[in-house]
Each structure stands twice: as structure tokens, then as C-alpha cells.
Amino acid sequence: MSLKLKNYVIWYQYKTRSANTVRELPGKELIDLCKAIITNSKLSEPADTLILKVKLEGETEYNTTLNCDYFEEHCNGDFKRLVEMHKIKRLNPISVTTMENERLRDELATQVNPINVTSQDNQEMQRLRDELAALKITQAQALSKEIHVRYNDQAITFRRSMLEEIGTSNVEDLIELIRPKLRKFIEKVSDIVITLRPGNNEVLGSETPITELYNTEDQALRVVV
């Protein structure tokens, strides 16, 4: 059943094209917005390869990935709430790009002659690697049903269904679930400070949403005490 948007429209911008609007959706799910964008902008990509990002009005960077989890948990699965919460309009549209993993891999594979590689080539190769890594992380977060963490050589896994059932919402909540699992390795674990790091990156903030933490085993968060 199609969904006609009453009293509001959804603005989006595909890559560097001009902002455009969606006024009717083929259904009520987030994938239906992707399908409408594909049709509206006459794209050839499959709907499930679109990457949607949103930002609050006044922000300069699109740092929030609009996936099914975010849509359900923060917008209650309601497009009008999504539009109102982020003040989506022509000057603040949803950013739309595509998963281009294969293209990125191909471009990286062509950079095979280290003798003639210039500084500019190195910068371009690093940009491609960073973009590919970001796409992999985005896909993993959208598809994974688990959060993997690791303390030394000990792996700990939390299932999405369990986290949702007990209302785990951010890093601070997750750390309190990790703490009792460390008792057999650490004395007085209740008194220590525990932080989480994605790889060798900076410490995750305590308010980082749980929806941004879903990952695969090879992306396990490091538990640091």
C-alpha cells in the first residue's frame, strides 16, 4: 500500500545533484524511501545499496547514518517524525550516496606501480582506503545483530535482541554489562574505570548510541581498564 505524505515532503540530495523531494512512498518502511528515491531520480542502483545520512539543522557534517535501527529507535518508524526531528528541508536534505565497494577495490587494484607513485597518488590511495573502510563499517552496523568486544584474548558478545530487551541505549550502559564479565580476570572490578576503543582509535564517549556499536568479530571493540 502506497503512503502519500500529507502536509510535508521528504527532501533528499543524491551525491552532488540538486536537492529533490519525495511526496509518495510505496510503503511505510525505510527501504520504501530508498525505492522512491531510486524511482524519483531514475537511478539504476538497487534500493538496498543506498546509504542515507541525516544531520540536525545547523550541523555541517552528515555523521548520522539513517538505517532501519535508527529509523525505528529514534523516529518510531515515522517519516513525519524523522522530518520534524532533523528539520529536513531543501537546505538540509537527507544525504544519499551508494555503496561502491567494488569500484573502490578496483581503483585500489590499479595502483600497482610503486616506482611511479607520486605524493598525490598516495593521498588518493589513502582516501580510497578510508572511504572503503567507512563503507564496510556502515554496512556491518546496518546488518550485524551483535556487538563484539575483547579484553586481552577474551571475546565477549552481546546479542541485539538481548540489548533491546533490557533497554541498553549507549556505551555507558554497555560497560555496565561488561563489568561483571571481567570479575574472573580483575579484582574489585566494580571500582575500576572501563573504556571502549574501536581498534586503536580514541575512547568512545559514554553517550555514544548503542546503534553505532554493532559490528563483526574482526571489528571487536577493545576493553581498556
UniProtKB/TrEMBL annotation:
Highest taxon listed in the record's lineage: Eukaryota
Keyword tags: Coiled coil
Coiled coil: 118-145
Protein name (database record): 18399_t:CDS:1
Species of the source: Funneliformis geosporum
